[in-house]
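hi! just following up on the protien thing from before. the input was this:
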Amino acid sequence: MEETVSSVVSELEDLRGNPQPPPLSEKTLTDLQLLLRHSLTESLYDELASKNLSPSSLIPPVASAMDSSSLLASDVFLSLLLSPNAPVFTLFTPISFLSFLRSLRRSCKAQSQPGPVQDASQAQPRKRKRAPRARAKDPQNDDGSSSPDPGLLLRVLEKLVRVMDFIHLDRFPETLKSLIQTVAELPATALHTCGSPAQYSKLLGLCSRVLDAVLEPEHGEPSATAAEVLKSLCPLALAAKSQARAFALGFVTGLGAKCDGVRKALVSFPRYLAMKAPEKAEPRALAVDSIMEVVRVLEVEEQIAFVKYVVQMAHGKSNLRLLAVDLILNLVTSLKNPFGVDSESGVSEVWGVWCLEALVKRCSDVSGVIRARALSNLGQVVGFLARDERTSVVLREFMGFGKGGDGSVVGGMNDMLRKRCMDDKAAVRKAALLLVTNLTALLGGAIDEVVLKTMGLACSDPLISMRKAAIAALSEAFRTFSAETVITEWLHSVPRLIIDNESSIQEECENMFQELVLDRISRATSATSSYSEFPSNRKMKGKGIDNEMEMLFPNGILYLLREICNGEVSPWVKKICTNLGKKKRLNHKIVCALQNIIRVSESIWLRHSMPIEQWTAPPGAWFLLSEVSIFLSKAVDWEFLHHHWQLLDKHEVEGEFKSPFVQKNAFVEEESVECNSVAWASDRVFLLQTISNVSVELPPEPAADLAHNLLKRVEEFNMHSTEVDAHLKALKTLCKRKASNLEEAEALVLKWVHQVLSRASEIIEKFISENSEQNTQGSFFTPPRSGTGKGRKSTAMSKSLSKAVTAIYTVGSLVIVCPSADMSNVVPLLHTIITSGSSGPKLNKLPGPATSLQQEAPSFYIQGWLAMGKFCLADGKLAKNYIPLFVQELEKSKSAALRNNIVVMMADFCVRYTALVDCYIAKITRCLLDPCELVRRQTFILLSRLLQRDYVKWRGVLFLRFLLSLVDESEKIRELADFLFGNILKVKSPLLAYNSFVEAVFVLNDCRVHNGHRESQGPRTETQLFSISGTDEKSRSKRMHIYVSLLKQMAPEHLLATFAKLCAEILAAASDGLLNIEDENGQSVLQDAFQILGCKEIRIPSTRASSDSADVEEEGGESGSAARGKAITQAVKKGLVQNTVPIFIELKRLLETKNSPLIGSLMECLRIILKDYKNEIDDILVADKQLQKELIYDIQKYEAAKAKAAVAEAVGTKPKSGSNQAPDVSKNLTKTQAQTFGQSKYSNKLPSDSRIASAMADAAAAAQARSVLREINNGTATPPLSSLNVPKVKSCTGMGNSKHVKRMDVIQSVMKRQSFDSDGEN
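and the predicted 3d structure came back as:
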């Protein structure tokens, strides 16, 4: 060992006097380590003393070695400090300790990889892949190895823990700070250094011990040291999930038991984390988790203080508001007793209400991302709190639905939900629906009808996720309580989605219908069976039939059945039942339930001693039974069907219950019977459908008897028209059941069809002849006849008419049932009927008077057309001859019912004979402007279906005529049009709006002076009919609504192209003289173009290009493709404006020469364009500064004149009670000028003097602008007003002292410019 000591001392002696000694060699470091390990430091120090060397001479070369990233030197340095009887104060220096810390950091960073912290499972593969590269890049390490020994690193950390007991760092704050930062970084940087998870866990433990040691008082003030430790651990706490993050959070949460100074720093740490939290979604969620880990270990008072801080954060910047919204959710769901309902906790402050208030406010945030997040989190909070009865009571009171709820709170919550359910952002709408879903249980039946309607509209949203959310929200409301409004909205919104293009939505629709409708009705079996056990229940007796039924069938089952058979719902119910039946998902319990409901209804009716001939089953019961019986025929009881058929058929045959037709000669007393009559007829129809469905299961003899009975009923021709089809269908089905083969069945059908046709022909012919004779006789009776005879004659005629109408309807139905039947005898009769309405010279001459069935028997006349339409569907040759007659009648008929029927028939013809009808489509589209709303809606729906199925093409005038439906008087038609253009056409024909936009501008204004107008060669009256020409505000607003609807369907690139087309085909045409701007229609076109170019829908802001992605929170970096697309868009916009500005300048000069009132619209449009494309304008006009100054001046002058006109109007209307005038004035002001009037938008507190002063200020600004113009143009551009021949007028404000004010008044009196403000400034 003496040789070892001598070699070490000799090397140190060689370094004597060197101010920057080189590092010790590895051999010397190894020798020193050996001496220190065997506790031979005494001999070493003695030898140093013999050579006049101080023990401190060991430190500089060792420090140099540590600076060379030698971990061995670090081990030697710490061993020297730990050696027995070591002069610690002599050996320890801040410089050497900093060298030690640098060595520690470098040894770990040599193996660490840049990027986020990863766990060991993710890091090990990278280590194996990149280790050879590290050795190749750094072959000249001092220790000759590419990676440090993990065991050596752990030994160094162990010795560091021991050294902390010997040294006091309170005198060296920078050294202490460096130590804390180094140790805090080790869990992340040493991840790749440790060879195994066990070694890494040991390293984390040693780091924790070191950080615990630095918190001792001898190293400084604990509060300041703890703050530095927490600050250094913040990056680990906010990192991705890993062992390092767990270490940091574990260490921080363990500080709760420390001294007060450390705890003070711990209390402030969550706020520090909140300030450092990243903005991206996933890292922000990790930050929230870390914050909550720390908050949970705080005391209750400290937690409440942090809650107050978070509530204040909710009013800060956008990133803090978003973080506060997430924190509030975790605070309410993680901490105890947010509402003070737990008396044991002793918490007096209800901090949960503060959180709810902040969350509700953020639901109306200006940022769509924050709104969506707040709504989503509020929904989760509601769902969490609703689990506990005590917290749910507090929540109800806060929401305004409890006993102590304030009506204004309810209104405020409902108002917020309405707005958010109709928000522009899809993510906000979806979150609002989820909130409504969770609020349903709390609302207690108090769902706002507007919110319900909004949820129903959301079922038609173009986004699949939105439709699913709307289904879930409405279904949860229906599941929770069975209010009639909820049932109605659900049935009108959800079942229709069975025809949705998305299969998952169809399946969800089927599942919800089965659960909420079929299963709910099936559960009624138990109620009806229990009732049958107590037929003489006295408690229910005397309460009325309706009340008794409601008590037996709660949860709105009867109302549900009644709404199912609604005309708007029944088609979707049929489709759903068919789908469920094909999938074998229908249960026989539904059949038993419906049969029991009908039986119980009959029993209650009889128990109340009511006449059975007036009984009808609960509405919808027979309808639903007829739909499900197709797939559950074995579950239907034949005795049940037979009993009710005999019941209904018996009273009809005996004449005790009639189903009268409402004719123009019908008595008023019969109107009260009509509703019950229709219900009775509907029961028979659905009963017959049910019998047809289960006919396969019927015994042969009852089937034959029933067929004979049905045929007998048909031949009497006294049924309601709704019953005829059911009877014929049932007859055909029973014939097939009776026959042994198909040929025999067809023969049987043909036999009774010809029999019925013969009988019907006789009745029709007889009625026509009687009508002709009556008209012949009536033409010679000049004096009035007696009233009694006339009444009897009218009654007989009414019965004859009713029979004839049924006969002719039956004829038409027979053609559908059996198209192969011989109809040659009936066609001439139908021809006579449909041509009886045509007038000619010969029909008006005596002695042969006209036989106008159209006037005498309108229902018979309409049924004649309907029957002829069915004949034409069965016979192509007949259709070719009669389709022109249908079109002619459609144009001239005054009967809305007939026009409606003909439109339906023409739609059927279009499917069957597309080529024959195609040339008449333009005439059919005239019904889009029919005076009857039903005809307009029917035409729109039928043509839309034909267009979707490609039977009709979007060519010619069809698309342009459809545009008028967007501004129809009927709200239902407008909703249908919005759905067609916004959902269907946007997907099916995305270029349609772009290709026809400019043409639509000319057509809507009835302008025929441009080549783009396709109808310029058409008749003038027709083009005027389908235009909204006019300069009045109502016409302009209608046209603008159509333009905006089309612009919303365009992609960003199409908006740019439309902008260019408007400039090229309208503005350039006007400046070149192709468009006559002196013509009223031409002016309207130009003014519309200015409004379109200035509207916000045609602009492409940064958020519009990625509107879909903005709805979802995509907070990642901008991808390369998005960046390229943005660059291309900017380039296209710049080129577009380069071509646009010269057109505007030329058109401006032209309008100025003609003193056109359109200058105001042009300047307003130009101002918006210059504002939106400010950067591009600067680049375009960089070479022409003069032009740039002139444009800016013109805009300033226009703005000053407009503001002064607004002020003058305000002053002029001051004496009037104009409390509502302030908003109108403020709308016409620019952003800067609105500051003057902003405070008086909703009140009229602005004094008269201040308004006058404002007017003077505007006049002074205008004078200054003129002086600027004179400086630019050397005083030659603008002639003095005195040289102009203008009339002398007085100032409207009474301030005529100023010369400039007078001149502005003169300008205002000569040129009155109309202003059309853009929505983009709102």
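The two ends are 90 Å apart (CA to CA).
The chain has a mean pLDDT of 75.
cheers
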